[in-house]
Design a protein that fits this description.
124 residues, mainly alpha, 6 helices, globular
């Protein structure tokens, strides 16, 4: 994707070392929403932070995890490999599928009562 800043996970963590996991996840969502992360970068960063960095999922309420778990599921099953998509139908998500599904989840979150506190909407 031309014009999209692609930051590696390591670069992201190094720039964010003073941020806690919750803030890093919110920042990753924010960067994705404004187009600074393409879907591949977002899925990589989200998966690493949410599942593998000290249990990032623990930094959120049960109501927030309801939405974030769905994003995590999609992120873990995103692939840019046509072979994966062909050989394992209904297992992996393409770029357009992942983007549509994640965008829908974020919109659903924004319109939910959970979002009333603005937890994922705040700027970091």
């Amino acid at each position: 994707m031309i014009g999209v800043q692609k930051l590696s996970y390591i670069t992201f963590i190094n720039r964010s070392n003073l941020m806690n996991i919750r803030d890093q996840l919110i920042k990753a969502i924010s960067l994705y929403r404004v187009g600074q992360y393409d879907i591949k970068t977002f899925c990589d960063v989200f998966g690493q932070l949410y599942y593998y960095q000290n249990g990032g999922y623990k930094a959120f309420s049960d109501a927030e995890r309801k939405y974030l778990d769905k994003i995590g599921f999609i992120s873990e099953r995103y692939t840019d490999s046509e072979d994966d998509l062909t050989q394992y139908p209904n297992t992996y998500y393409s770029e357009s599928q992942a983007k549509t599904m994640i965008d829908d989840i974020l919109i659903s979150f924004e319109t939910s009562e959970v979002s009333a506190g603005g937890s994922l909407d705040r700027k970091v």
